[in-house]
Amino acid sequence: MARKLITLTTDLGTSDYYVASIKGYLYSNAENVTIVDISHDITAFDVVEAAYLLRSCYKDFPEGTIHIIGVDSEPIINFGPNNGSFPSIMIMDGHYFISNDNGFFGTFAGERRDFQFYRLDHILSNPKAFQFPTKNILCKTAIELMNGKAIEELASPEEGFKTAFSPLPIIEDKLIKGHIIHIDSYGNAITNVTRELFEREKGESQFTIYFRSKSYFIDEISPSYNTVPPGERVAIFNENGLLEIAINRAAKNGTGGANKLFGLNRNDLIRIEFTSQGSHNTLNELF
């Protein structure tokens, strides 16, 4: 029998019994299942953070993997069809994503439309399930899918879904304004500026990346952290093609990563200024 794979992404933390209860429920009701934790340290109710983490790694899993996103998972059913949030399933790239439709799906999919989307039926048939919806609704649905139930028996096709607010880079004349979207466990600041966008806007120009204040800047992209000496600031494009600001060999909980030493936080603005070859004047008036 083929092994079945489930990933868990939640805001439940690990100091309570919740994650253990979920795993016990899955193991008790699905044969030959393997469970992989993406993260249980998502900021409470932060579906944008959950979407970023899962989008960064889901393609490393085989097709057929079921991803359960237990962030802000309690359905809202009393505020009309346009304002409620309903447990739903998205199928994309051969993967199944089960979440409350609270903004996660729109943020996760972005501009893509090559997927199928379904809304779970009969969620009102078990009111007690709302007391622990990640286990009693989302995990229950995953188990039914793994046990061979067709998705059409569980859910109905749906056209629309919600999108949580997530800032996009702003492009101006010789300038990209981006945002820090994640601080990782090393204190590295990951931005929403993609390599593709950077290279398109850069062309043959020189550039300076400013962050926090005009005193903090980097004017080159390195291929890896160790390109610079330990303790030096560095900018790279990570494996997902996103611009990252870091300090080589620093750590958030040790000597201090880029977030501590530069005072960087999620949603902070970064600026990339482009200048013509032979000219490297700064746009200090922007700060």
Q: Which terms summarize this structure?
A:
287 residues, alpha+beta, Rossmann fold, Elongation Factor Tu (Ef-tu), domain 3, 8-stranded antiparallel beta sheet, 7 helices, 15 strands, 30% strand, elongated, disordered C terminus
Helix content: 10-25%
Beginning-to-end CA distance, first to last residue: 61 Å
The biggest sheet amounts to: 8 strands, antiparallel
Provide the number of structural domains.
Answer: 2
- Write down the overall geometry: elongated
SSE sequence, one letter per element:
EHEHEEEHEHHEEEEHEEEEHE
State the CATH superfamily name of the largest domain.
S-adenosyl-l-methionine hydroxide adenosyltransferase, N-terminal
E-strand count: 15
CATH class of the largest domain: Alpha Beta
